[in-house]
Amino acid sequence: MKELKDLAKQYRKSAAEAIYPGLPYPKYKRAPKSLLPENPSGQGSRAFSTGNLLTKFITSPQNAIDSIASKIGNGYQIVVNVAPDGAEYGRWVHFGTRRMMARPFAELAASEPKFVQALDEFMQAESEKVVDGELEKIDDMFNKAGWKIT
Hints:
- The protein is mainly alpha-helical.
- The chain has helices at residues 4-22, 52-59, 65-68, 90-95, 105-111, 113-144; strands spanning 69-72, 75-78.
- Strands 1-2 form a two-stranded antiparallel ribbon.
- α1 (4-22) packs antiparallel against α2, α1 (4-22) crosses α5 and α1 (4-22) runs antiparallel to α6 (113-144).
């Protein structure tokens, strides 16, 4: 069973992989320096030259596994800082400029198959908890009415 912390860990890992070595991203037309085996056309999200963005993204306290995922009311959210301290230019890499197309590593992480699988497992476990809770409430109502459910 996946916990929220596991989901956050996979998301951060997927976002880091989108920075380096890069994930297939056909909207970005310039070929990266090294081709991905799964993307021989060279169109990818690779945003790595010195390694600074990747290092700052992973080590930023704002992107710590315990702080990027949280439960808000009845829902959940995952928030990462694409422009961590020391690599503020990450926002330009992620959103692009008028001269450089965007390489949205945080968005690509959300559609990466390993993250999607982890999200599905997490949501399956959470929905089972909700259903079990509702069934317990129904059982309690029947027991208060004098009915025995087996």
